[in-house]
Design goal:
Helix content is 4%, strand content 50%. It is mainly beta. The strands form five sheets. The chain has a five-stranded mixed β-sheet. A hairpin with a 6-residue loop joins strand 5 and strand 6. The longest helix has 8 residues. The protein is globular and about 45 Å long. The chain starts with a strand and ends with a helix. The relative contact order is 0.19.
C-alpha cells in the first residue's frame, strides 16, 4: 500500500448559517454540502454561495447527474435540485448509523460509520446488493475514474483511502494533517477531492493522485 501526505489545495467557509458539514457532492458546477437542516451549494471557483434547499440533511450527499440524494437519519431522500422537492425515500442500510453517500454504476454506495462498512444499495428499493468491510470508521465515499475511495476519521486521525472494490484491500492512503478530519467526500473529474470538515464548517479540496500513478502503484 502506498502512503503519502494529503495535499490540501484550498479551504472554503465556514458559510453563514452552516456551522457543520456532513455530506458533500459535486454536480459539475457547484459543490453541495449538508449542514443538518439544509443543503447548500457554492461555486468552487470562488467559494460564493449559490443556492440552498431546506431539507433534512444529516449525513452523506450524492448526485446522479440529475437528482440529489441525501441521508436524513434512517432514510435516503431523492431530491430535485431545481424545485427542492423530495421525490422519493428509501431506507438507509445502517438504520441511522450511515455516513457517506456516492452514486456510481447506477447504484448508491453508502458508508456505515461505526460499523466500518460500505454498502452498494439499489436506489429504487434500498436493498443491499453487497458489502465491503473497512478497518476504520467510514466517513465518506466516492467513485472517480473507476476507483473507489473512502474517508476515515477516528480521534484526530483521518485519511483518504483507495480500496479494491471487490475485497476492500487498501491500495493507497492520503493522510490528512492532525485535526483535519473528513466528514464527507466527493471528487470532480479533475484532480480534486472535496472533503467536509465536520464541525469546522469548512470544505477542503485535496489533490487527487494522477490516475496513472495510482493504477501503477495499485498493481504492485
Amino acid at each position: 500500500m502506498k502512503r503519502s501526505a494529503a495535499e490540501i489545495l484550498r479551504e472554503y467557509g465556514p458559510f453563514p448559517g452552516a456551522d457543520h458539514v456532513h455530506g458533500v457532492t459535486y454536480d459539475g458546477q457547484h459543490v453541495w454540502f449538508a449542514s443538518g437542516d439544509k443543503l447548500n451549494a457554492f461555486d468552487p471557483d470562488d467559494g460564493t454561495p449559490r443556492a440552498s434547499i431546506g431539507v433534512e440533511a444529516h449525513a452523506g450527499t450524492a448526485f446522479d447527474g440529475q437528482y440529489l440524494f441525501q441521508i436524513a437519519e434512517d432514510r435516503i431522500q431523492k431530491i430535485d435540485p431545481k424545485t427542492g422537492h423530495v421525490l422519493k425515500t428509501i431506507p438507509a442500510p445502517g438504520g441511522g448509523g450511515d455516513s457517506g453517500l456516492a452514486w456510481a454504476e447506477g447504484t448508491l454506495w453508502v458508508g456505515q460509520y461505526r460499523d466500518r462498512k460500505i454498502h452498494q444499495v439499489d436506489p429504487q428499493t434500498g436493498e443491499i446488493l453487497r458489502t465491503i468491510d473497512s478497518d476504520r470508521f467510514v466517513t465518506g465515499v466516492t467513485w472517480v475514474d473507476g476507483e473507489l475511495w473512502h474517508a476515515t476519521w477516528e480521534g484526530d486521525e483521518s485519511d483518504l483511502r483507495r480500496i479494491d472494490p471487490k475485497t476492500g484491500e487498501v491500495l493507497e492512503s492520503l493522510e490528512m494533517p492532525v485535526g483535519a478530519g473528513i466528514s464527507g467526500l466527493e471528487a470532480d473529474s479533475g484532480d480534486r477531492f472535496f472533503c467536509g470538515g465536520g464541525n469546522t464548517g469548512k470544505v477542503r479540496t485535496v489533490r487527487r493522485p494522477k490516475r496513472g500513478a495510482s493504477a501503477v502503484e495499485g498493481s504492485k
